[in-house]
Known about the structure:
Two copies of one chain form a homodimer.
Chain A: H1 3-10, H2 16-27, H3 29-34, H4 37-44, H5 48-57, H6 63-73, H7 91-111, H8 116-127, E1 130-135, H9 138-151, E2 157-160, H10 163-171, E3 177-182, H11 189-200, E4 204-209, H12 214-218, E5 221-224, H13 235-284
Parallel strand pairs in A: 1-2, 1-3, 3-4, 4-5
Helix pairs in contact in A: 2-5, 4-5, 7-13, 8-13, 9-13, 10-11
The structure holds a DNA duplex (30 and 30 nucleotides).
Amino acid sequence: MTILSQIESTLPNLSKAESKVAAYILEHPKQTMSRHIGELSKEIGVSEPTVIRFCRTLGLDGYKSFKLSLAQSLPQTSEQLLVDITHNDSPLKIGQKIIDSAIASLQETRKNLDSPQLGKAIEALLRAERIEFYGQGGSGIVASDAQQKFFRLGTPVVAYSDPYIHCVSATLLTPGCAVVAVSHSGSSTDLLHSVKLAMENGATTIAITARQSVLAETADIVLPIDVQEDSTHYAPIKSRMSQLALLDTLAIAIAVAREDEQDLTERLSRSNDALAHKHSQNLSQ
Amino acid sequence: MTILSQIESTLPNLSKAESKVAAYILEHPKQTMSRHIGELSKEIGVSEPTVIRFCRTLGLDGYKSFKLSLAQSLPQTSEQLLVDITHNDSPLKIGQKIIDSAIASLQETRKNLDSPQLGKAIEALLRAERIEFYGQGGSGIVASDAQQKFFRLGTPVVAYSDPYIHCVSATLLTPGCAVVAVSHSGSSTDLLHSVKLAMENGATTIAITARQSVLAETADIVLPIDVQEDSTHYAPIKSRMSQLALLDTLAIAIAVAREDEQDLTERLSRSNDALAHKHSQNLSQ
DNA sequence: ACAATAATGTAGTTTAACTACAAATTATAT
DNA sequence: ATATAATTTGTAGTTAAACTACATTATTGT
């Protein structure tokens, strides 16, 4: 857990002044890093000791260690980010650059996670009687991965990466179905066509794709993944990672929700048993 | 580029005392973070201003900004890591936890990247006349992904996720072939069997799997991915991400190497042309 | 409404980061 | 080889930021 999510979780337990501090830091983490306690406290409108007390509440030593923790959970500043791969890079350097870019992409995705769309997507998938994943090329693999993950959750689920096949499948959908279209660019006409077909048949469509894309505009629910096109080398793995992370989130969220449902029915039946038992006791008295 | 790699690259230009500082920090980055300038300079055996000068040489403002940069490039301390997903987690929280765990896993992989095995793997794949990727279940998808990536690099390449198929394929291999076996646990007997068959036929085998596993002990070259079994929820995506990053690294490293070769032959032929031209000029004089 | 407790701020203290300058080392030129 | 210039390193002093003790103000319960 990063320091920022830790702040979020302790927010409700904080006093008025301290939660002002928390709110400011959550909104301006980067600025916080470069300010010293005097500037920061003035900016927020509290006293210096309040800031220190806030740091202590989080379990840290003081403002210094807080700033260090904050720096650790913050992504690298953009200037030192992502130099493209050159011909004199060693394999080690190539690997490091790729992993750095993947991490940056995941952090970006993490930031954009907090949207009502996520909840809507989960709800739609929970309700769906049948789920189909469509994706072409690299995203086809992501679709297959999703299929494997959703497979165990009880709902019938398939993944298609062939344009012709998912087009045909889309025509056979019914209102109880959900379609998840995965695409890096969101501009594949084949995929778009299948999504439109699915919508015509009343299926709920979820797009995991670039925010500014035809696919995103078309689908019912959009989970945006915006990968800056900084490099031909990095782009594929960046979108792949973010897509996988998002689908994993959906799968686990649904698994958790289903388990809760089961628990609930189990608890209900158990409580019914208990009631019945009690009833028979009453009768025998 | 992280601050640590920046230190590495500036190391040759540093004076004696400053390179002592650099060497210490590269070896003990974590300790450095918690020390203040006095402690650090005493520990290294230089004066405080020397440390400050070192920070300035790196282009930073002073020791404070240096510590901040260092913190940013250092992975989170393990204690604040990864609480498992619980039933009362919101979808947002689930997503954040999943992404955090994926990032942690990638950082771990990044650390273990620097090994002669990586170079060996690239060399073997560069030499190979034919490459086969084997992986089962979740790793099967990674194998397919690798197949797509390596596809454009010129070498014939296939991916098999069916145990029976890759077993048959392994019997048909020749010494010029390379096999990349991808497995989270490294304990699949089917996969192990196919790798052994491939080795018997003289193929070079590369394993992307847990360091402590039968598969790792068997294969010619091992690219280890050690995912702590901290959670059933996180484990799959962690290994998936690291596997993808490693295979991407291999693919791009090979692409870069091949381009260099092409450049070289191109440059050679161009220089030959130039020579021929010059020769004819000499003749005509 | 008043007391008690918690929360916040003010003023002072300590500590760590930084600066100016001096000493020592190294390099270079005669 | 030696002297001088330039660079490097360290010492001592200064500044500024982080932290502490205590006073004041809000908040809660009786």
